[in-house]
Structure formats: structure tokens, C-alpha cells
Prior knowledge:
Number of helices of chain B: 11
Low-confidence stretches of chain A: 86-157, 177-188
Strand content of chain B: 25-35%
Oligomer: heterodimer
Number of strands of chain A: 9
Number of strands of chain B: 17
Number of domains of chain B: 2
Mean pLDDT of chain B: 89
Shape of chain A: globular
Structural class of chain A: alpha+beta
Number of helices of chain A: 10
Radius of gyration of chain B: 21 Å
CATH architecture of the largest domain in chain B: 3-Layer(aba) Sandwich
Largest interface: A-B, 82 and 88 residues
CATH topology of the largest domain in chain B: Cytidine Deaminase, domain 2
Low-confidence stretches of chain B: none
Distance between the termini of chain A: 50 Å
Structural class of chain B: alpha+beta
Order of helices and strands of chain A: HHHEEHEEHHEEEHEEHHH
Strand content of chain A: 15-25%
Largest sheet of chain A: 6 strands, antiparallel
Radius of gyration of chain A: 23 Å
Strand order of the largest sheet of chain A: 1-2-6-7-9-8
Amino acid sequence: MNSVQSLFFGIREYLSPVLKNSKFKETGCITPEEFEAAGDFLVYKCPTWKWESGEVSKRRDYLPAEKQFLITRNVPCFRRVKQMEYTEEDSETQIETEDGEEAWVATHSGRVAANIEEIVQQIEGEDDEVTKMMSNIAIVPENDKEEVDIPDLDDIPDIEDEGVVEEDDPAALNTPSNVVSSNDDGPSDKILQVRTYDVFITYDKYYQTPRMWLFGYDEHRRPLTSIQIFEDISQDYAKKTVTIETHPHLNMSLASIHPCRHAQVMKKIIEKMNEEALKKFELLKQQYGNSPNAPQAEQAQVRVDQYLIIFLKFMSSVVPTIDYDHTISA
Amino acid sequence: MSSNPLVQFVPYSSAVEAAFWHTLSTRKIDLYKLDDTSHDILGYYSTGHTITSQHATEANISMPARLCLGTGAFDDVNAASFSRLPPFSYPSIGTIKNTNTIEDFKVLDKNALFKEITEQIWQDINSGKAVKNPYLLTRFLLITFADLKKYKYHYWFGFPALVTETSWNVAKNGEIKVISDLWESKDIERFRENYDLFRQKQSCANAGFFLVKRSNDNEIMIGGLSEFDTFFEGCDSDEKIVGFADPSSLPTNPGWPLRNLLVLLQRRWNVYKIKILCYREIPGKKDISQTCILSVEIPNTAKISDECPKGVGWEKNSQGKLGPRSADLAPLMDPTRLADTSV
Lengths: 330, 343
């Protein structure tokens, strides 16, 4: 069954025409060229992201060989979504903009926030339409069968006969090997073993949007099972929009945020941002009057190369605990 | 003098990407087959940093000093593969010995393999190769057994550090401090900019070890290890600084690569007291505020004997004991189990 379906998906992807004309403002979709431009912008602004080429046999010819997908590695993930929801209220903070004029509330993690964040928050919080849209997503591929998937790590027998002789080494710092609870004796610096994620962004030709993939490791650097990964995904989305599938450029299966509604949500976010920007622009225009230095309306609009930065903000609501770099540095 | 505390170094924690195991399996099946000779692999590490918690009740978090292996680990070791490493990382060359059976893995003479790598580092120090290419100081060993049918991998890392007879102490008044306690912010900024330029010129390969001094006109200058003899000409001993990209994130301790660097300094240039800069950046944020400086000294100024020193540095397993680790990738790679979770 699986192979028939992947064959179907393969053909479907092959047959869908590669987007040539930009319509990201109207539809929220982007072309491969725009994906490349937005990827370049992301790598420039957030240099922990990197382009990679992946498996040669899986290369897509509508993207340059060395720019098949984006990756950022070893992203720490401190606490599970459950813990986060518990502390959400505590972390709401008023943040002032650089000019000190406006303040807004940043929820979740108090990450460095830009205006985009505010809009994303608004959309998540108030816009019933989008919320409904997201929760209506009816892909529920996971079922209880998953319980079977927890690997029995214990059944790997410990190899006792190491045959390794090593003298005492007083110059080596003994680092704790077990997980150190992060709040047992107040603020002090410790080596904390935390979950980490490798985060991938690929271009989904069928949905004509970026698609995010997650590969997680536990505190001892063992790959996370899908159940464990779901602990890091906002409960509104887990199991609805997150599926385990084969990475389009690697021979591995990993968790992915299904892109079937990405375009609609992105369109909404971009529209909101443009509205906000236009309002600001009107204000500025009043200040400048008819001066030739007056800003142009187009300058205030969202550019397509900013698409991935906005996309990552949107994704951070789905996986709120993973602290990847999506902040535009000044 | 002897009352000064010993310098204690933060060991590496290995971090293997799942894709590395996948590549190893493919190569074992298609390329190596029953050949179990050793191969070079390319690992990498980044500088450590502490992450400040967003919640007042929680402690700040220092990430482990990671030595990572990714998909590109089996690429030939050259400038091109170095440039494919993740941004803000430094290369580390390893030797992988993959056995054919679990029995082979158990009875393998691990001490001998470890000693081979230790001797290689020692030779590179003596021949001057490690001066030209200081990344050779971070050589490591990885022994593996890949159970290809069950997608289970047994592995053990060794990060050899040469142990000379006398240990390095923290020099008097040389306790480790963050850079902002010792330098003015404009100097820190100049250092950051100049180090960035130096790193670009070295294309990261050899940027992990470097020299720092303040010139007469108060400029902060960066040089390569190979310039050691000329770079510090006319400098007071107090102004000579040797820097390294430090994977440790603890504000109290430097990381593992400093150990072999100190042996190199002592062996080649008879350095017995030196100021060390532990370079730590937050990747992509142009923030090096967690960089630390300390002074170290060795009380006994005798030369190191020509004999290769002992090496230490087997990685401990998750129970904190000397022993191999294992990774189970069946849920991710086994086709029958993959089919179960697919759409």
C-alpha cells in the first residue's frame, strides 16, 4: 500500500507544473526561484542556516544542485510543550521597540521579537478563521500502532568486556553524565543534557510552499521516536499536521509539518503584515508631507525574499519549544 | 606554586547524526564489504556557549562540548570538504575502525588503536605538521560495529590528549575570567572583527588555533600558529596570548583541544607560562561576550622527553563508565517499520 501511495505522490509531484510566475501575495505559494531567493536571504540573515545538496539520486532539477534544501543543526529544545504551556503566563512580557514608542506582548519564550511576531501571535490568538482552518486539517495518519515504535534500547546488551585501560586523569573535568535538573539549586551554570533537533526546510513542489522537517535527539544523543517528538509539538497541531515521512533529499524518515495549509496561512500572515505596514506608511507620509525623501508605498510591503523568515515565525507556533534561529539580527 | 589549582578541561561529548550511520551502512555494504581496515573521517565542533534561560526560576544552561559527525563525514579530507561543514564549525580528523562482527568489536585491541592516534598527534607536533595545520591536534578515534540487519550501531569514541609528566596549573592571578572583565568593549569588538577576517582567510580549517597580541598602536592583531617566532617579537610575556576555538561552555573550565595545544607550545617553543584565550561565540549573532581568558603555567620547566607521552580520553558512556555506546535506528531505517508509520 505504502509503495503504491508513494508512487502516486511521486507522479503527482512530477506532473504538477513548476510555478513560474510569482503570486505569493495572492496565494501564499512561492516558485522554486523564490524559494531559492528566500533561502539565500535566510542564510544571510540567520547564518546558522545552511544550504545543502543531499543525496545525488534525489536531486530536484528545478533547484540548483548545491541548494536543494536548508538545514540548521543541534538546535536545543529545553522543555516539553506541556511544561511550556504551564509557564506560558509567566513568560508574557512587554517588549518595547527600539524607538520606545510601541510595546507588545511576546508570549511563549520571550524570544527577540520583531513586528512579524506580533502579527503571527494575533493570527494565532484572535483570528478564529485561521485557527479553525488549522484545526480542521484532517490528516490523521498516526494511530495507536505507534506505541510499538519505541525502540527497546535496553535490549542492546551492555558490552562489559571493554578491555580498555585508562589511568586516572585529574586534568579531565568530571561532567555529570546524567540529566541535571535545571532548577534544583538556583541559577548556576551546569552542563545540561537537553534534546536537540536538526531542522530542515525543503521545497514542496506539489503544495508550492516550504516544508519543515524535524529530526530529534534525546539527552544522550539517541534519535527520538515519533511519540517523543510529538511532545515538542504544540498540541493543537501534533498528530493533525505532523506526519512521519521520507525526507525528499535523504534516505531517512522523519517528522514533517504537513504543508497542505501552509499557503493559506502564509497568505493571511502576509496580508496582515502588509496592512500593518500600510498603516505605518500612511502615518509616515503624514510626517514627511510632500518631501522627496518620503518613503514609497512599495518599500513597506513584504518582499518575497522575506518569505522564509515569516514562514519560520509561523512554524515556531507549531513547534514552540525548539529555539532555532529565526530572528532577524539588526 | 604547587598550591595553584590544576587546570581541568571539559571533555568532548560525541554527537553522531543519524544520517552518519546510514552512510556508514551503505558504505559497508557497497564499498568496504568485509574489509575492516581503518578509514579517515571528518568530524566538526563549534564553540560552546551558555544559553540564558527565559525563566527566572531556571538556571542558565551550558551545552555539552560536542564533537559531531554528519553526512559529510566520509568525504575526502580536503579544503572542499572543510568548506561543506556547518557554519561556525571547526574540522576534526578522525579514524574509524568498523569491525565485521560484535565479537571482533569486543576483542579489538582498543588500547593499541588509541595509542596509534596518540602517536600520530605526537609525530605531527614534532614534525611541525601540527604547527602548519593545527586542526591535526584534535585527531580522534571511533570504533564501531554496525548490525546492518537490526539497524543497531555500537560505537566508542576516543579523544586522545597527551599527558606530560607535569600538569598545567592555573597561574597566580590568572583565574579564568570572561573577556569583558579584562578588556574594554572596543577592544573586544576589534578582536571579533579581526578574528572574523582571519577565519575567512583560513577558510575555517586552521582558524581553531591562533595567536593574539596588541600592537604598538593598540590594534588587536591575530596570527597563525606558524608565525609564533616572529609574531610575538618585542612582546612582554604578559602580552602574548594564544587562542583556540573552545567547545566548552562552562565559564569555569576550558575545553579539550587546549590540552594538545599546550603540549605543542611547550614542546616546540618551550612555553611554560602563557595567557590563553578561549574563543566562544554565539553563532551568527556576532556575540563573543562568553569568550574567556586565563593564564596557565607549568611549574617544572624541564623539557618534555622525546618519548611519546601517554594519551587519555576515552569517552564515557551514558552511565558515566568507560564503555561503548549504542544507537538503535530501526524505527528510522528499517523498511518494514517505516511502512507501518507511513501515510
